[in-house]
Amino acid sequence: MLKSINCGELRKEHAGQRVTLAGWVHRRRDHGGLIFFDLRDRSGLVQVVFNADVSEDAHRLASDVRSEYVVQVRGRVSERPAGLVNPNLATGEIEVYADELTILNPARTTPFPINEESEVGEAVRLKYRYLDLRRRRMQRNLMLRHRIISHIRAFLNERDFIEIETPILLKSTPEGARDFVVPSRIHPGKFYALPQSPQQMKQLLMVAGFERYYQIARCFRDEDLRADRQPEFTQLDLEMSFVESEDVRAIIEALMLSLFAAVSDKQVQTTPFPVLTYAEAMERYGIDRPDLRFGMEIVDLTDLVAESGFGVFANVAAGGGRIKAICAAGAGGYSRKQIDQLTEEAKAKGAKGLVWMKVEAEGLRSPIAKYLSEEEKNGIRERCQAQMGDLILIVADQAEVAAASLGHLRLVLGEQLGLMDPNVLACAWIIDFPLLEWNEDENRWEAVHHPFTSARDEDWPLLDSDPGAALAKAYDLVCNGTEIGGGSIRIHDQGHQSKIFAALGISPQQAQAQFGHMLEAFQYGAPPHGGIALGLDRLIAILADEASIRDVIAFPKTASATDLMLNSPSPISPQQLAELHIAVVEE
């Protein structure tokens, strides 16, 4: 080894020992007869002193060194003089007096500072990702990622789960998102697909009798990106045999609580995790992944104002729509400009407008107050549990639009009013999702989760009469307004699987061509089974206080799915194209 100890491991008890260190020069300060380095490796920093009286050669060479040079230092550990201890540094009680210095590799001036957390454009960070990863924040994030994944493995191994790898080259099957496809040179004109998830493989592992499987799985989806999406991502993939929904949720909840305690100082808001139905979440929060760190729930005012003198309310109610509201505590002082901005936010989610009411000593002040009776105004205030100084916001529209726009405003206000405590983890389970949803563009039913999700036992007959009313044995885990996991009890018999395929408009011939392996496997004694997939990138981002999953992934893609460091995707040679029997058609 080129070093005898790591920089960040040195402590007061090492005083007097001779050590060999190696790392990067984090900072350099030249005081003439004394030159100071902060030497950095993955473990942390230590101060190194070059004194011309101790070693003239080392001092002379140190004067040529600059930030990010890779060096080796030999010297003696010494306690810092009284008054010069650095309490902000783990090694702050000692320093190393160097008598030998070797420059292992010089460094050019970096395109951005490594030794400070200055703002750097993301494009530059990603182009020089290997330098960005040297910075303290990114090192901390990736070491946290390592600790989280290690904890997950240890937790599941102790509970009789088996880690099994599944193939990366699979068959392209319709599962929701677009597949990344890989041409086969050996089989011209045929393609593999990269797995959107190991869904089918893990179900087949249950048929194979392994009963408890997990995998830290790489998954690939060719879809439009945003802060919490990447074309390739990592999930904890888990499947269990002979279980009900509650069993899967129990093991994951125990895992989450164990993990949070091990790697985070954040406080879990409620245990056991609350369980909300999909319908309840949409009614109360306007979204199926509610942020429960704060209240401000949506309330329904329709029955109070259905016959109101305010025509908009009366007309919407008569047309089968809903009048809904949220109450922002303490926001009664919002200016007209701020309320106009909230109105634009509501319109962006489909609302035609936004009604506001401020609770003041004289009563409710609002542009529509004169159209409402005292009974109606008192009813609104009481239903919203509004107090002096609060702001009531109302949307009158179709139920879905009212819920979506107020759900969005709730999150906007939650951020503006500082209600989203970053030190709190508010987790919840969302259950009883619709099994199917209607695709207007394609005029057919689609699976809300995937085509292997089981309907609730009592809802199977609805597939013949009212498919949209059937609910699934599905469950999502949400944390601080982010979906971090989703799973379900799976279909394990051929009859029910064929019934789902029929509802989705997949003919028996198509089902056999695309999923014949699954249908055949179900004929050989498939056990009841279910599982879940947790998005590790999203979970790690929450625990690392990062807004984007790109900041917890070593080498992510940009929002346009490009790799600026490797300059990919990129063309391939005509020879490669010919070998793959592919022709590129110019637009």
Task: Name a few traits of the molecule.
587 residues, BirA Bifunctional Protein, domain 2, 3 domains, alpha+beta, single chain, Gyrase A, domain 2, OB fold (Dihydrolipoamide Acetyltransferase, E2P), 25% strand
CATH architecture of the largest domain: 2-Layer Sandwich
> Helix segment count?
17
Distance between the termini: 56 Å
Overall 3D shape: globular
Helix content estimate: 25-40%
Number of strands: 24
Strand portion: 15-25%
Q: Which fold does the CATH topology of the largest domain refer to?
A: BirA Bifunctional Protein, domain 2
Which CATH first-tier class of the largest domain would you pick? Alpha Beta
> Structural class, from helix and strand content?
alpha+beta
Uncertain parts = none
> What would you give as the CATH superfamily of the largest domain?
Bira Bifunctional Protein, Domain 2
Strand order of the largest sheet: 6-9-10-24-23-22-19-12
What does the average pLDDT come to? 95
What profile does the largest beta sheet have? 8 strands, mixed
Number of domains: 3
Q: What does the radius of gyration come to?
A: 30 Å
